[in-house]
Design goal:
The complex is a heterodimer of chains A (273) and B (793). Chain A is built from 12 helices and 14 strands. With 273 residues, chain A is α+β, with helices and mostly antiparallel strands. Chain A has a 5-stranded antiparallel sheet with strand order 4-5-10-6-7. Chain B has 3 domains: 4-14 and 488-634, Aldehyde oxidase/xanthine dehydrogenase, molybdopterin binding domain (Aldehyde Oxidoreductase, domain 4, 2-Layer Sandwich), CATH 3.30.365.10; 35-143 and 205-258 and 261-295, Aldehyde oxidase/xanthine dehydrogenase, a/b hammerhead (Aldehyde Oxidoreductase, domain 3), CATH 3.90.1170.50; 298-475 and 638-792, Aldehyde oxidase/xanthine dehydrogenase, molybdopterin binding domain (Aldehyde Oxidoreductase, domain 4, 2-Layer Sandwich), CATH 3.30.365. In chain B, helix 10 packs parallel to helix 11, helix 11 (379-397) runs parallel beside helix 19 (750-767) and helix 18 (678-698) crosses helix 19. The chains are: A alpha+beta (273), B alpha+beta (793). Chain A binds chain B through residues 1-5, 43-44, 185, 187-192, 194, 249-252, 255, 258-259, 262, and chain B through 125-127, 130-131, 134, 288-290, 657-660, 697-698, 702, 710-711, 713, 715-716, 718, 720-721, 723-724, 780-782, 785. The complex binds flavin-adenine dinucleotide.
């Protein structure tokens, strides 16, 4: 469990980082908090020629509010999100979810950008982005583009990134018309969830994003529509059939579906006022 | 001679006091010295190519490319090392019929479990050694694997050692009374269940590791070793590497947890010693977490079909069971892998009066990691069988489980006696322990709460276990079987010129506080301040000869040796003092670092006495030759083991929608005889309970049908963590064992032995309104949902 040899690069600007990425032509990987990448390298699951440490890129830092949108730099750590007044005031869902992401030591290093770029199907952040209808700002050698969270996660550990870096996350400021809910089921505190859901309700419409259930964080439009219609919960839950639930050692797909239903039911009971 | 009472009652006694451990500050400041902290000149590092298959023929090994990889010093195959290391076989003569095949440090022609070491690479760093491992090309012919213990004996299952004709390693029957007649008697109810106990493992904070240094000029091998039994390993290295025993020195400095994992012969460690000898330079091997999961011994792996017969009035008439234990492809050397099953056969139902007993044990080979002695060997199985069935029977006849135990537990005044299986029992207190337990947990209050909560759809359960624990083993455990495992331990005390004590002992410290209790016994019995005692353990060159730490024997055996040695040194010192002070020894004592009169008035500081002896011997009569050093050894003689007992209870809540179990509170009343340090004993029990909760609810080594270990990471293998652990309340009953002056029995394994049964019973109590019950550990959410679904059908 020692990583194979690699070069360590520490660019001081976004342009320099992008140039390095391009130069290594797919053989270099960006390093954010290292909480997923370093274990992957030690297991020799990832063996990049070079690591491009994003630590010094001021372009990827900072939390600002502008025109009804909170912009969160990709290198913002979970711990910073937890203590940030802007995030607390404008994105209550993040505050609800963060205590469930790992433990202090991991939250002190892990970043929002790293979590989204990794696209772990059981991670909380991707589901949060879906529920919040966030946009991911990504920058390549030629351009910066905005990708809707709905279009960003393509599969297990797969995203729409194409030789680009995530530079920031844009989340709409919460409005008085919105309510939020979050629930996840883990046997041990801080573990990846067996099933979980994040919900943003705007007036009578819902965005409900499940995580830990399939190959990626997942919304089910028919289920959201059923919630809007205020269908009986029994009916709402039938739309979970549309998710291709994961089978693994901790829970088979039947159990997962059942747990997703429990998570949904409990979330709806505990939505913010 | 100073009498026993005096030891425990004197003013500056330490035995029984909650003294904080002296080494805690050092360890917390990061100044511990674990194997990986040792760095020697010219040291190189080992990594291993391990079998990716559960069962495969090794057709060829190509090391060509690896040899030229950066930093590579040497590469060894099984055949290379076989020329320098003799094979070993995990059998003992007193385990009649037990068979196992010769094992080599690296597999020879066939790989028999995923993770078995095949090729060793030695390089200038561990990372470079791993790089080279990737370049080793092993050509395997994958063979069908025998994975499932249930089918291990079937005719169409591959036989792992063809020379044996089957995968049976060992079997034993234990029969007392007439179980069939007892069960057939009128008015007898029989409950029957099939228990499944998954495999789990020790997950020590410090993984296994060894640094071997060979000096050819003296033919001397020095081994820094993360382990529990240095003298046993000295014999093993000597025997299998062909070195004189005295030329092997095994040093175990700080050890970060062991739990029975670090007391066996591991191929990678033996290979590391062999490489050091061949290369004539230090070689270090530190198991990484993946290697730990696939090579550290696993625990449990039992399938048990069991019945208990009980009269309508609640008298247990007998237990009948069949235990099938899977041990991997070999019996572990030198302790063997049959002891786990043997303990189940011996201990099931041991707290209860029972006339009839029938047990069959079968131990089978499989293509999985080796299974062997882990904390509370066999105990959780034995306790879960008897107490699981007991509470099942209580539900059946509609009797309270505590009342049912009261009726069947051996009476506290009925010892010495034997159990149904012939175990010699003495100094036990089952009934007092159970009564104390129900008091401290407010049993009636909890039952009322349970009834209330059920009205709101909240399902809480209360479960108990009454248990015994095997501690302080005599030579009957391993010694008679021919294993190089000492059953006795020794202690040496030396009074230094400054009046301080230097003590050493052959028992060892892995984090449980061994050194702390040795210091307490030495200081208390001899009569100096605790901070004037320096303790050395874990070094075959500097400590007395002994067995080390396992089977909850450290305090009981090593502690007694220290007590005897401290008394002996005290007698010596008083003899000198008597001469120097012209006073009869019977009028003198030692307290607070000084020779005193019997009222405690200081007559002569120990430093003055020692300086006179060491520096100014001319002031002493010529016929007085004080040594100021004493050694005593101790072993248990009259009993094969010294049993302890305990009563434990769990309070759990089962979320019937998710199958999640929350342990709300855990209580343990333990009788480990004399408590030397309540802080340490309580933490031992708590730690043990946590490991028991792990086995009951979380920990499992998952294998695929073809024998792949599926969850060999800390993300996928779930150890219990602080957030989920309940408050664990501990209380004691102290019935000192009559086998020693100290009167201490073991306590190290009680929690692990008892907690799973208590948790199982609590979960089943919670599930009982739904008519559901679960008999498989760990009790995962999915398994609980499954039994709930079945009951709802
Ligand atoms: C013990 C433990 C428990 C954990 N539990 C949880 C949990 O419960 N929930 C959870 O969600 N996560 C959990 N994690 C993972 C943790 O959240 C990680 O921090 C996160 O997934 C990745 O963030 P990072 O900043 O560490 O990224 P890194 O590990 O540095 O990088 C992850 C991946 O993203 C890429 N990357 C990083 N930043 C960028 C960027 N700006 N642009 C493009 N690509 C980028 C990297 O190249 C790499 O491929 C846990 C981790 C540990 C060690």
């Amino acid at each position: 469990m020692k990583a194979p040899d690699f070069d360590y690069l520490r660019p001081s600007s976004l342009d320099a980082a992008l140039a390095m990425l391009a130069e290594h032509d797919g053989e270099a990987m960006p390093l954010a908090g290292g909480q997923s990448l370093m274990p992957m390298m030690n297991f020799r699951v990832a063996a990049p020629e070079a690591l491009i440490d994003l630590a010094d890129l001021t372009e990827l830092r900072g939390i600002t509010v502008d025109a009804g949108t909170v912009r969160i730099g990709a290198m913002t750590r979970y711990a910073e999100l937890m203590s940030d007044a802007t995030v607390q005031a404008h994105i209550p869902l993040i505050g609800m979810a963060l205590p469930h992401i790992a433990h202090d030591a991991v939250r002190n290093r892990g970043t929002i950008g790293g979590s989204l770029a990794l696209a772990d199907p059981a991670a909380e952040m991707p589901a949060l982005m879906l529920a919040l209808d966030a946009s991911i700002e990504v920058t390549g050698p030629d351009a910066t583009r905005m990708i809707k969270a709905d279009d960003f996660f393509l599969g297990m550990f797969e995203t729409a990134l194409d030789g680009e870096l995530i530079t920031a996350i844009h989340v709409p400021v919460a409005t008085p018309a919105q309510r939020f809910g979050f629930h996840e089921l883990t046997q041990r505190h801080g573990d990846y969830a067996l099933a979980g859901v994040a919900i943003a309700q705007t007036d009578d419409s819902y965005r409900a994003a499940f995580f830990g259930v399939a190959d990626r964080a997942t919304r089910v439009p028919e289920l959201e529509a059923a919630l809007k219609r205020q269908d009986d919960m029994k009916v709402v839950l039938t739309y979970l059939d549309q998710i291709d639930f994961t089978d693994d050692l901790k829970a088979n797909h039947t159990t997962r579906q059942r747990l997703a239903g429990v998570a949904l039911t409990r979330t709806l009971k505990g939505m913010t006022a | 001679m100073t009498g026993p009472a005096h030891i425990f009652d004197k003013p500056n006694r330490y035995i029984g006091k909650p003294e904080p451990r002296a080494d805690a500050a050092r360890l917390l400041q990061g100044r511990g010295r674990f194997v990986d902290d040792e760095k020697l000149p010219r040291m190189v590092h080992a990594a291993f190519v391990r079998s990716p298959h559960a069962h495969a023929k090794i057709l060829s090994i190509d090391t060509e490319d690896a040899r030229t990889s950066t930093g590579v010093i040497a590469i060894y195959t099984g055949a290379d090392l076989a020329e320098h290391v003799t094979p070993y076989v995990g059998t003992l003569t007193h385990m009649a019929g037990l068979r196992s095949a010769p094992q080599h440090p690296l597999a020879m022609d066939v790989a028999r479990w995923q993770g078995e070491p095949i090729v060793m690479v030695v390089a200038t760093s561990r990372a470079l050694a791993e790089d080279a491992c990737e370049l080793v090309d092993v050509d395997y012919d994958e063979l069908p694997a025998a994975v499932d213990s249930e089918t291990a004996l079937d005719a169409d299952t591959p036989v792992i050692h063809p020379e044996f004709g089957s995968n049976l390693a060992w079997e034993r029957d234990v029969i007392a009374g007439d179980i069939d007649a007892a069960f057939a008697a009128p008015g007898v109810h029989v409950v029957e269940r099939e228990f499944r106990f998954g495999r789990h493992t020790g997950v020590t904070l410090e993984s296994r590791g060894t640094l071997c240094d060979y000096d050819p000029s003296e033919d001397q091998l020095t081994v820094y070793y993360s382990g529990q039994a240095p003298h046993m390993m000295q014999v093993i290295f000597s025997k299998h590497l062909g070195l004189p025993e005295e030329n092997v020195r095994v040093i175990s400095n700080d050890v970060g947890g062991s739990f029975g994992i670090k007391i066996h012969t591991y191929g990678d460690e033996i290979a590391t010693a062999a490489a050091a000898k061949l290369l004539r330079r230090p070689v270090k091997f530190i198991a990484d977490r993946f290697e730990s999961f696939v090579t550290d011994i696993h625990a449990r792996d039992h399938i048990v079909k069991a019945k208990m017969g009980i009269t309508g009035a609640g008298t247990i008439v007998g237990i009948d069971f069949d235990d099938l234990t899977g041990i991997g492809p070999f019996s572990m050397y030198p302790r063997t892998s049959a002891i786990e099953c043997n303990q189940v056969l011996n201990l099931t139902g041991a707290p209860y009066v029972m006339e009839n007993y029938r047990a069959k044990g079968r131990v089978v080979f499989q293509n999985k990691t080796l299974m062997c002695q882990y904390r509370a060997v066999g105990h959780p199985i034995a306790m879960a069988i008897a107490d699981g069935l007991l509470e099942d029977a209580a539900r059946k006849i509609g009797m309270d489980p505590v009342a049912l135990r009261e009726l069947n537990l051996m009476a506290d005044d009925s010892y010495p006696r034997t159990s149904a299986t012939g175990m010699k029992l003495d100094d036990l207190s089952h009934k007092r322990a159970l009564r104390k337990l129900t008091e401290i947990m407010d049993y009636q209050g909890l039952r009322a709460d349970q009834t209330e909560a059920r009205k709101d759809g909240i399902y809480r359960g209360i479960g108990f276990v009454s248990m015994v624990e095997v501690t302080n083993p005599s030579p009957m455990f391993y010694g008679i079987g021919g294993a190089p495992i000492a059953s006795q331990d020794g202690a040496t005390l030396r009074l230094d010129a400054g009046g301080a004590l230097h003590v050493s002992s052959s028992i060892t410290e892995q984090g449980q506080g061994t050194n702390a209790i040795l210091a307490q016994v030495a200081a208390g019995v001899f009569g100096v301040d605790l901070n004037r005692v320096k303790v050395t353990t874990g070094d075959t060159a500097t400590t007395p000869y002994g067995g080390g730490t396992w089977a909850s024997r450290g305090a009981g055996i090593g502690g007694e040796a220290m007590l005897l040695a401290a008394q002996a040194l005290k007698d010596q010192v008083l003899e000198v003092a008597g001469v120097m002070l012209q006073t009869g020894v019977e009028k003198l004592d030692i307290r607070d670092g000084a020779v005193t009169d019997l009222e405690g008035n200081e007559r002569l500081p120990l430093a003055d006495l020692a300086r006179t002896v060491y520096y100014r011997g001319n002031e002493l009569p010529n016929d007085l030759n004080p040594e100021l050093i004493a050694t005593r050894h101790y072993r248990v003689t009259d009993f094969p083991f010294v049993f302890t007992n305990g009563a434990m209870a769990a309070h759990v809540e089962v979320d019937t929608a998710t199958g999640f179990v929350k342990v709300l509170h855990f209580w343990a009343v333990e009788d480990c005889g004399r408590v030397i340090n309540p802080l340490l004993v309580d933490e031992q029990i708590r730690g043990g309970v946590v490991q028991g909760i792990g086995g009951a609810l979380y920990e499992e080594c998952h294998y695929s049908p073809d024998g792949q270990f599926m969850n060999a990471t800390m993300a996928d293998y779930m150890v219990p963590m602080a957030s989920e652990m309940p408050d664990i309340t501990i209380a004691h009953i102290e019935t000192p064992t009559k086998t020693s002056v100290l009167g201490a029995k073991g306590a190290g394994e009680a929690g692990t032995g008892g907690a799973p049964a208590a948790i199982l019973n609590a979960v089943n109590d919670a599930l009982s309104p739904m008519g559901a019950s679960i008999w498989q550990m760990p009790m995962t959410p999915e398994r609980i949902l499954t039994v709930l679904d079945k009951a709802a059908e």
